[in-house]
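Weekly sync, protein design subgroup
Attendees: M.S., D.O., the rotation student, P.L. (late)

Item 1: inverse folding check
M.S. brought a backbone from last month's batch and wanted to see whether the design step gives back something sensible before we order anything. D.O. pointed out we never logged the input encoding, so this time it goes straight into the notes. Structure tokens as presented (180 positions):
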């Protein structure tokens, strides 16, 4: 008799909790008003089969070579935001690219940001990397970009450019060979 009473009590409690959970979920969806400022998130276009094949090649182990174009820095709602365009000028994919941006006022660091590229970057592929960090109270007099990746040594040889070129991989490899 005691087992039956215990089973019945636990079943009753589970039903009561489940009903309350479903009631809260329906209130949240039925009573909420959509935010007028929020734009619907557009799903990115799926990559082409050729790009997927290029990303699946063995990644770079050691120093990777990239070209980048740093976009203008804007202050939006208390954050410093920028978009950095990065092109892989090496002949193998780069995995786990990370960009750190440091802002300085004189010799003092006043703010820092980090952005990561989650997908591999195929050889010759150009990606937009959005980066944002808290707006510093002081006016920044300079900034510094640091690039790293997760393959091998993790070093990246960045080259700032005004416009991406098609022959970047050959030029960068030749320069890297001359340095050694």
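Designed sequence read out in the meeting:
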């Amino acid at each position: 008799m005691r087992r039956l009473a215990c089973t019945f009590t636990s079943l009753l409690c589970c039903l009561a909790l489940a009903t309350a959970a479903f009631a809260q979920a329906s209130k949240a969806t039925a009573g909420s008003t959509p935010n007028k400022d929020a734009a619907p998130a557009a799903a990115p276009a799926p990559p082409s089969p050729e790009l997927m094949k290029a990303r699946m090649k063995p990644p770079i182990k050691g120093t990777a070579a990239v070209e980048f174009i740093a976009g203008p820095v804007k202050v939006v709602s208390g954050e410093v935001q920028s978009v950095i365009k990065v092109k892989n000028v090496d002949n193998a994919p780069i995995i786990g690219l990370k960009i750190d941006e440091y802002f300085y006022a004189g010799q003092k660091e006043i703010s820092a940001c980090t952005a990561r590229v989650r997908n591999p970057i195929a050889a010759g592929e150009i990606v937009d990397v959005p980066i944002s960090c808290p707006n510093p109270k002081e006016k920044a007099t300079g900034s510094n970009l640091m690039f790293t990746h997760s393959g091998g040594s993790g070093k990246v040889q960045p080259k700032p450019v005004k416009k991406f070129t098609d022959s970047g991989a050959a030029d960068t490899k030749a320069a890297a060979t001359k340095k050694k």
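Discussion: The chain has a mean pLDDT of 77. The two ends are 85 Å apart (CA to CA).
Action: P.L. to compare against the previous round before Friday.
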